[in-house]
């Protein structure tokens, strides 16, 4: 049985959907928040967990709460 505090909890995100709504590329988002395009790509695909600073910059950019971008997901 997994809990929210063990390593089996995954981080899901809505970054691609938010970018699509604004019609911006990974590079445009990266430039706006001061990271590389590769950082945006790896966060979107779940290969990289962003720092709190990057997550907060994304939330400010998209003008949404961090929880609208990132959610904890328990595996089934």
- Whole-number tally of structural domains: 1
Rg, Å, rounded: 13 Å
| Shape estimate | globular
Structural class: mainly alpha
List keywords for this structure.
about 80 residues, mainly alpha, 434 Repressor (Amino-terminal Domain), 5 helices, globular
Summarize the model shown.
This protein is mainly α.
Structural description of this entry:
With 76 residues, this protein is mainly α. It has a single domain (14-68), classed as 434 Repressor (Amino-terminal Domain) (Orthogonal Bundle), CATH 1.10.260. The chain has five helices and two strands. The chain starts with 9 loop residues before the first strand and ends with a strand. The mean pLDDT is 91.
């Amino acid at each position: 049985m997994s809990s929210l505090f063990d390593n089996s909890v995954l981080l899901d995100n809505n970054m691609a959907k938010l970018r699509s709504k604004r019609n911006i590329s990974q590079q445009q988002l990266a430039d706006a928040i001061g990271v590389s395009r590769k950082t945006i790509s790896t966060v979107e695909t779940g290969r990289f967990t962003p720092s709190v600073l990057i997550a907060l910059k994304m939330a400010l950019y998209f003008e949404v709460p961090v929880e609208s971008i990132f959610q904890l997901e328990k595996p089934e």
